[in-house]
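Q: What structure does this chain adopt?
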Amino acid sequence: MIVLKELTKRYDRVLAVDRLSLRLEAGEIFGFIGPNGAGKTTTIRMLGGVLKPTAGAIEIGGVSLLERPVEAKRMIGFIPDRPYLYEKLTGMEFMTFTADLYGVDGDVEGKAMGLLERFDLLNRRHELIEAYSHGMRQRLIIAAALLHDPAAIVVDEPMVGLDPTAVKMVKDIFRDLARRGKTIFMSTHTLSVAEDICDRIGIIHGGSLIALGTVGDLRRSAGVGEGDLEEVFMRLTEEETR
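A:
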C-alpha cells in the first residue's frame, strides 16, 4: 500500500533522509522511531506531499505521489505533528470544511457525526475550536483526517497531549482501521505505544534506516533478550554513534 524507493531529502549540505526504502502492506501498523533530528518528520512530510523529495519515489496504492499527487493524496489521511485548526470554526464546521476539501460524497453530516462520537467530541461539536483543549484538538484533527475514508493514514506523534483515556481510544481506533485493511504509518516518541500496537517498527538515525522488523526482530538485532523497546532503541542508536 505504501512504497518508498530510495527516498532522499537534502537541505544544502545536510542530508536529512538518505535513500530510505520501505514497503508497507494493507492492514499494517508501522511505527517509525528515532532520536530528534533523525529524519522522522521530514519523511512524514514527504509522505504527506508537503515536502518534495530530492530523489527517490513514493507510491500510495500503486499511484506515484510525485507524478499523480492529487490522486495519491486522496488515498491519504495526513495528520501532522502541529496541525493548523481554524479556531473560529466549531468542531462540526471544521469537519464539514474538511469534507468539502476532499470532495466527500453522500451523507457528510452523518459521517462527521459518527466520527465525532467515536472520538468523544459529539457533545462539543457546536463549540468553537478555540475553546478546545489540546487533547480535543488532537482528536478532532484525527477525526477529520478519516472523513474521506483514506486507504493509508500518515501520522506524526498522534499521542502527544492526550490523556490515558484518549490514548487508549486512539490505539483502539488504529487497531480497528488496520483490521479493515487500512495502512498506518506512525512516527512517535512514545515507544510504549509503538511496542503495543505496531506490527513492525523502523528505526531511523542520521537520516538512514538502521533497523527494521517486529519487536522480536529488533530485540535479536540489539541482543537484549526480553528487553523492552526503549532498551532496544537505546542499544541500537548508541551503536550508531560510536
